[in-house]
Amino acid sequence: MPGFFFPHNNMTELNGKDDCKLGESKIHKKKQKAFGADLKNYLKSMVPHIESGIKTSSSRNVMLSAEEVIQWSQSLEKLLASQSGQSVFREFLKSEFSEENIEFWLACEDYKKTKSDHLHGKAERIYEEFVQSDAIKQINIDYQMREATAKRAQDPTHTSFDEAQKMVYILMERDSYPRFLKSRAYLNLLNQLQTSTSR
Question: Which of 4, 19, 177, 192 is surrounded by the fewest CB atoms within 10 Å?
């Protein structure tokens, strides 16, 4: 079990539960700031340069327009149809510790395009990573759905994960997506793009 790192030179400075809570809250704030900084840097890299696209970590030129970012607010479907939208939304979900939802949704989209002779291996990986009750990135689905998906994954077809994927999509649409649209990350990105195009 990993230990906590306390930014104190002397561990005797931490006396009793109050000091431990203080130390833990500082760590939590640092994690939140780190997530915020990562998201901010990512969004900065997504904002187009005046003359050319900024290279992202995948070394592709990505030009984002204010128009495209506005379209993301029309529906979750439009947001997920955009590669840039997926990336920005994923970073937002990471900041909320719920990135397993979009990762599962994307894994299902990829799974549907899989050749039939590779379905079994991919179905097993998706089930182990996201569906089984002790999965590392366990998605939030009810017991009946988990059981039904487990059965379908044992004899996989291209639609084995459709019901679970739909449930996760609805969860994101009702919960995370509205918060994303009100988030500083989204609003700042939109504002920066609108400012750069009005120059």
Answer: 4
Task: Tell me how far apart the terminal alpha carbons of the chain are, to the nearest angstrom.
Answer: 53
> What mean pLDDT is reported for the chain?
79
Using CA atoms, how far apart are residues 90 and 76, in angstroms rounded to an integer?
12
Rounded to the nearest angstrom, the gap between the alpha carbon of residue 70 and the centroid of all alpha carbons in its chain is 20
Q: pTM of the predicted model, to two decimals?
A: 0.69
3-state secondary structure of 11: helix
**One-letter identity of residue 196:** S
b/e per residue 162-190 (b: at least 16 CB within 10 A): eebbebbbebbeeebbeebeebebbeebb
Q: Which DSSP symbol is given to 53? A: P
Locate 132 and state its tokens.
């089984």
